[in-house]
Amino acid sequence: MTTGTVEIPGYVAGTWTVDAVHSTVGFAVRHLMISKVRGRFGDFEATVTTGADPLDSSVTATVRMDSVDTGNAQRDEHLRTAEYFGVEEHPTMEFRSTGLRPARGEGRFELDGDLTIKGVTRPVTFDLELGGFGPDAFDPDGGGSRAGFVATGVINRTDFGVDTNMPIPGGVALGEKVEITIEIEAVLNAAAGV
């Protein structure tokens, strides 16, 4: 499909629900300034709307913060406390897109939006790579569609009130920058009427 200056092979307009089984919301943060700790959130949902003009597309997402998993139960429990995520008071992280624009490279865009963590909302921009559109091999009736997207970005956790840190010789235990990687496989809603 070609609209204006954006050409996307196999493009399908409609409303898509994220298939959480085939999707990942992950993050990485510097630890002791010599390595990175990686983690993911296991409980999330999102809706993607691809517009007739691809640049009119949008996404909303909700992530349950208590579903954090870094591979260490003690660390995960600490992350759930008020020192970090404060999940009792702020159980979810929210994202709502505000704009989409082309970037350099085929199938690449910049996705702007508002990210809310611990009740603090800040504008963020993700690099978005379109994986493509194709048939849904899991659709028992046939005729369904799937789409894939990868969004990456970096936020400063202290901007969102996640500012606890422990001084160590030569620096601090955790870096302030958090790398976010979101890999999404989405299913076209039957009601979309494509």
TrEMBL record:
Organism of derivation: Actinomadura gamaensis
Family to which the UniProt record says this protein belongs: Belongs to the UPF0312 family.
Signal peptide interval: none
Cross-referenced InterPro entries: Lipid/polyisoprenoid-bd_YceI, TTHA0802/YceI-like_sf
Pfam families, A to Z: YceI (PF04264)
Domain (Lipid/polyisoprenoid-binding YceI-like): residue spans on this chain: 15-187
Protein's UniProt name: YceI family protein
Superkingdom of the organism of origin: Bacteria
Alphabetized Gene3D superfamilies for the sequence: Lipid/polyisoprenoid-binding, YceI-like
Record SUPFAM superfamilies: YceI-like
